[in-house]
Each structure stands twice: as structure tokens, then as C-alpha cells.
Amino acid sequence: MSDHEQEFSLKNLFVPLTTFKAIHIIVILGFIVFGNMLFNGFVWDDKKFILANPAVHTINIFIAFGSNLHNSAGFYRPLQPFYFSIIYALFKDAPFFYHISQLILHIVNASLVFLFFKKFFNKTLSLFLACIFLIHPMQVEAVSYIAATGDELFFLFGMIALLLSFKNDLHFKTLSILFGLLLLSICTRETGFLFLLVILLQRALFRKRDITLYFVYGLVTTLLYFFMRFILVGIFLEKFQFIPIARLTLLERLTNLPLIIFYYLKTFFIPINLAIYQYWIVKVISFQSFYFPLFIEILLLLLIIILGRYLFRQKRDFFFVLTFFFLWLVSGLGLHSQIFPLDMTVAEHWFYFPMVGLLGILGVAIQQIPSIHGKTIKRIGYVIAIVFIVILSARTMVRNTNWSDAVTLYSHDINISDNFGIENDLGVEYSSMQKYDKALQHLYKSAEMFPYETNYYNIGFAYEQMGNGKKAKEYYYKAINAKEYSGETRKIVLLGIYERLGFTLLRYDGAKEAKKFITKALKDYPNSANLWLQLAVVEYKLHHQDDAVAAAEKARTLLPSEQVNSIYLQIKNKQAVDLKL
Question: For the ranges 232-236, 329-333, 394-398, 561-565, which has the lowest average pLDDT?
Fold first, then answer.
């Protein structure tokens, strides 16, 4: 084959660019850029929401949609535990399969973004924008962090619904599917409500028909979600008092708004200092923390207004496209702007939805560049685009390595965003590795920064594992008496503390002292199988056989596990009891 024929064959891989070819490029690029995260482990909240979460260890739709760890602390996200329960049933605790499923979801989403952009821009520009969405370093937190799979899922359901809404004539069946998908999106993450908003915007700006019908369907969808959340399960909004931004007044939070918005815009264009646990707040209004970010945002807004004015006069159709994507971006940022306090100040995975709005604005701006004539100039443009994607891809691949395991992630990010949360979690990881000196170093630092139930509990647990019962009890009691910051979740936190303290008292102080505490704790937590099991052992050690059997029976009713059944039989048969908690 001649050189000319080889060049022609290579060119045919991309030219003409078809939808089929574009999606193949997205798939291949996605696996190349995120391939090095497939063998990462469970990190951050992955262990809490998957490994240590009984709600995902069995496929049960009633458990998923009822009260569980995902549906608590002010959140109602029943689709997440249902999704994780399916993966867990198939692959248990093998992280590879969670990662590969999450990556496939992200690649599918990027393909949907391409199909969506194609409704406004040419195929080449749509592919470029979709590739940025696919490989941007800010997406690592949404793709490498298993517990954030909800971002991909809510986006998947919402984007399919949005693409369906572009049809001119929608029958009852199609509309029911469309709003059923929206309900699934909202039940995965509350951010799904934004897709309801953009669908109504899409109909108002581009179709100008059936808006009332869409509004009615949207209202029914919203009321159905509210019924499940507030009436059936009773999950209400909660203020995270242990989060610095949540302890501020509304006016104080608004002074953080310029820097919050600036963080997302700056990180999109310069994705260097990426980190989890962003708890920072603006304590003093200054040039750097308030006026400079505000100036940059006003400047960008003026540029968008200038572009919009030009489009309104010259290209009215693109004016509506710009308006659509601008409102998309504003709504996405607005939901995460701390008007209603969230559990962090900012988070990279919260930009998963707003990024489409920003890319759409950039797409409108690029589309207005006069047609470039000449092969050389066009090639330069393509080279610049490819270099840009390569640079972002390289940064993403590096960031993926930070997520390889919990200690690596925390040790890296602590240099960018040091706070009580990351210090606490790093201490917990070292404690699980039995490196207690390192664990206590970070746990004590966490408590110095912000003392609350969790870091006190973790200090106590570290001492308990070291065999220091005196210090363990000291910090468990400190955790119980800590200033209340956890709101409605305090009861969940205290249950774990009570269970550990009951076990510690039984182990170090004897049955009589343990019985006083456990009996009192059961008044607050009558459905705790662990407390009933501890009471059974206590009564058995005090030679109260009937009371011991009754307490063990109660524990077995609440939690018919292998350990509970074993201790029940040991007590009933008057054998030596071995309680491990």
C-alpha cells in the first residue's frame, strides 16, 4: 500500500465525522483516560455507604426506598442503595466492578452530551465539547469516587428525558416515560430537579408548545417525590451544624458566593489544586476573597451580555441557545451556591451538571468565529484542540492515581485542603491499618481544629484497639457529651458510641457497671441488636440465666446473624460466651 493510500485510510477514520465515529472516539478516549482508575480501591465514603451498609447487602426495593443510610441526614436518594445492592449482589466487595460500571455510565453520559450538543452545533464542535465533558479533571471525583455514582445516574436519567423532550409531538406513553425518567433522576440525587427546569426552558425557548402540559406533568412528578420523601419515609431538610459553611447566617453565606462561583470557574479553566473536603469559608471580606472574584465574574457576565446582544441582532436563533445554556449554568451553580447550606463549601463532583451549561456557552462563542478557510489554518485549529484535550487527559490520569487508596488520597489532598474532616478520616485509615501512633496524631489534630462527636469517638476507638480501656472510656464519654453539631444524625452517631462504650465497660469494668450503662442506653435505642446482645452477656455473667436468654432472643429477633445466633446458643446451653463487637 502506498503512502498516499495509508494517509487516505487514516483520514477516513475521522472524515467525514459521523455520529457512529464520534461515539466510538468518546468510548475509546474514556477508557484510555480513566483506565488507570479501574484498579483503585474503596476510598472516602465508599466504605461507609457500601462495605459497612447493610441496606446494600441485599436487593430489597422496600429497604432501598425506606429509611437507610442513603435516605437520612436530610437526603432522600433511594435509587443509589438499589443500584449498589445490585452490584454488591453480583460482585460483593470487589472495587473493580463498581469502577467499571461507573466509567461505563460516564462514557454513556458523554455520548448523550454529544447527541445533545449536536442539536445546536456542528458534529466536530459537539464532539470537542463532549470530549471536554468526558475527560476534564473535575470529573475525576464523579468517576473515581464510587459513592458519587449518583452523579452519573441522575444525569443519565435526566439527559435521556431531555433528549426525549425535543420531540414535537409526544403521546401519553412517551410523556409518562419522560417524566418517569425525571422521577428516577430526582430519586437518585435532588439535583435531578434541575432537569425538570431545563426541560421546561427547552420547551419555552425552542418548541413554544405544550408548556402547560409539561408543567402539569412536572408538578405531578414533584408531588410524587415529596409524598415518598416527606409522608412515607419522613426525610426532611437538615442543617449540617458541624460543617463550617452551615454554621453561618444567610448573609454570611452570601459573602462566600463570589469565591464559590470563582472556584468552579477557575478550576474548570485551571484544574490544578484538586482536593476533597473543601470546608473553607470567607471569614473576612478582602480583595482576594471577595472583590477580585466578583470583578472576574462581572467581567465574564459582561462578555456574555455583549455576545448575547450581538446574537440578538444578527443571529436570533443562537441568542436563544446562549440564553438556554446560560440559565443551565446559573441554575446548576445556584443550587450549589450555599443559599441552602450543604455538607461542604464546594465539591468538584457538584459541577457535573453545570459543566454542560458552561460548555454550551463556550460552544456558542466558538460557533460565531468566522469560517476558517485554508487547510493549514484548519489544521492548526485541530492541533490546538487536540493539545488541549491531551493536557486535560494527562491531568485527569494523574488525579486518578491520587484516588488509588484512602491514605494516598488523604495524604495528597491534606496539603491542599487541610481541615478537621480530612484529618479525622486519615486518622481512621491509619487506625484500620493498626498504625495507632499515626492515627492518634491526625485524630488529635482533628479534635483540636473542631471537637465533635465523631473525632472523639474515633480517638476512643483507637485507644480501645490498643487495649487502653481507661483512655477509650474517657473519649467515648467526651463524644457523648460533645456539643451537639450533628442535628438529626446525632442519634445515629450516638448509637455507635453507646455500643462501643457498652462493650468497653463490659470488657474492662465488669458486668455490674456495664449493666447500668447498657440498660440506660436501651431506653434511647430499644432496637439496637448489639446493646441487647451486650445485655444478654452481662446478665449471663451475673448468673441471671432467664434474663440472659430473653435478651439474646431479642437480639436474635432484631439481627439474626451468625454471631448473634452463636451467642444465643452459648447462653442457652450454658457454655462459655465469646462476644466480639
Answer: 561-565
